Amino acid sequence: MPLKKMNSEEFKRLTTLLECQSPVGFEAAMTHGFLAQEFASFAPAEWAKYTFKGNAGIIFDTKPHDKEALSIMLVGHADKIRLQVRSIGKDGKIWVDSDGFLPLTLIGHKVVLYSQDPQNGRYRPLKGGTIEAIGAIHFADPKLRSGDRGIKANQLYLELQMYGKNPQKDLEKLGIAPGDPILLQRPISRGFSKDTFTGPYLDNGLGCFVTMEVARLMAKDQKYKNLRLIFAFAPFEEIGRFGSRIMAHKIEPDILMAIDVTHDYKAAPGVGEQRFPETTIGGGVALETGSITSPFLNSLLRKIAAKEKLPLQIQSCGRDTGTDAMGPVFASIDAAAVSLGIPLRNMHTISEVGHTGDVMATIKLIELFLDYLEKGENGKPLSRAALADNHIRLNATNSSSLNN
Ligand SMILES: [Zn+2]
After folding, report:
1. 253 CA to middle of ligand 1, Å?
2. If you measure from the C-alpha of residue 393 to the centroid of ligand 1, how many angstroms do you get, rounded to a whole number?
3. How far is the CA of 281 from the centre of ligand 1 (A)?
4. Ligand 1 mean position, distance from CA 23 (Å)
5. Domain that holds residue 105
6. Distance from Cα 78 to the centre of ligand 1, integer Å
7. Per-residue pLDDT tens for 196-210?
């Protein structure tokens, strides 16, 4: 099956979601703002919405009162990689902190700073700034010029073009303070190459988009009688996956499926010797194997994809999936975990690259998977007991050889 096209209405929704101002700790613009509104427009009245005291995550539940139904929680993470004010220098430089950007990839980019207006305490955007570290080539030492030396994280600052007698005071008067969040400012746009798109924070607006679109389909079709579906939009993934564990603890799902991004290893510069599988954009979604993922569900997903001729790439991970699929384990909850990754180039930069066909293939794979869980085999839906009893036994196999 060739990768499905994303129509212009879907692409517009994807763009709107990706551009929500939701840095780590401030995810509400996406969750309580955009997503709550979208769900309100399509979700049946019986679906429940859960919000949290300690974070801005949000969950939608198709069967809040049915604790017997097999429950599947889909998780996308709503937070964007952190960049924040560290301190304000005497000369008006705003020194910044980042958790997940390579310092070099930030330089020269336009950003928006959000700080509280001292008049009314409300956050408002301050635009016009860029991230800098060196300034003019004329002041750079020869090692920087040749590329022998790089940029240290503590060299990064936000240039808001302040000048005059006391720029530090002027900035403080504006209410700018340590911890104020900063977002990269570049719109999402179609790429040059067919079906590609580019911009910042595809990680993990894509997982949230897929989760939302599956919910939209389910609301439209209302075809699942046996399944309880939980659509979760987690905070705090980028700083340790602290949101999904709280959500898993609250819901205690039977199955948790994380929908995140992964690398296009085929095109990643300089990793050839590391022997990664050659996952690529435009090749379909990647299924993570290993770590705490369920071999039973993984083999089911592979079977479903093969039967429907849906492209599926396979990636292995070691101890940790690196995604919210770890949520139940961290929360000490017994759930079967699946981790899906939509391939990206240039992850954690302003120019992340994705493929709309991969996004659509992820939605399709999840729908087929849910169809299977609902119907099961021989007319019997997949049960909680089947999950507990159907672990793959490597002893129950016939040996095979090419040397017969
Ligand atoms: Zn990330």
Report:
1. 24
2. 34
3. 17
4. 12
5. 83-180
6. 11
7. 999 999 999 999 999
Q: Looking at 132, 162, 180, which one is the last position of a domain?
A: 180
Distance 238 CA to ligand 1 centre (A): 5
C-beta neighbour count of 205 within 10 angstroms: 28
- How many Å lie between the centroid of ligand 1 and the Cα of residue 77? 9
- Residue 155 forms part of a structural domain: yes
Angle 212-199-338 from CA coordinates, rounded to 5°: 40
Which residues have a Cβ under 8 Å from the Cβ of 65 and sit 6 or more positions away? none
3-state DSSP call for residue 295?
A: helix
| Cα of 305 from ligand 1 centre, angstroms | 26
Domain-embedded: residue 398: no
Same domain, 212 and 75: yes
pLDDT value at position 21? 98
Give the residues of the chain that fall short of pLDDT 70: 396, 404
Residues 101 and 227 in one domain: no
Contact partners, residue 119, CB within 8 Å, separation at least 6:
none
CA of residue 364 to ligand 1 center, whole Å: 23
Q: How far is the CA of 81 from the centre of ligand 1 (A)?
A: 6
Q: Which residues pair with 157 in a beta bridge?
A: 95, 132
- pLDDT at res. 3: 83
What CATH number is attached to the domain comprising 14?
3.40.630.10
N-term to C-term CA, the chain: 35
What is the CA(140)–ligand 1 centre distance, in A? 31
Spacing, Cα 174 to ligand 1 middle (Å): 31
CA 172–ligand 1 middle distance (angstroms)? 31
Kindly report, residue by residue over 167-218, the tens digit of the pLDDT: 999 999 999 999 999 999 999 999 999 999 999 999 999 999 999 999 999 9
User: Within a 13 Å sphere around the CA of 6, how many CA atoms are in the beta-carbon half?
Assistant: 27
The CATH number linked to 122 is 2.40.30
Instruction: Look at the chain and report how many structural domains it folds into.
Output: 2
- Residues 165-189 as b or e (16 or more Cβ within 10 Å = b): eebbebbeebbbeeebbbbbbbebe
22 and 157 together in one domain: no
CA of 203 to the centre of ligand 1 (A): 5
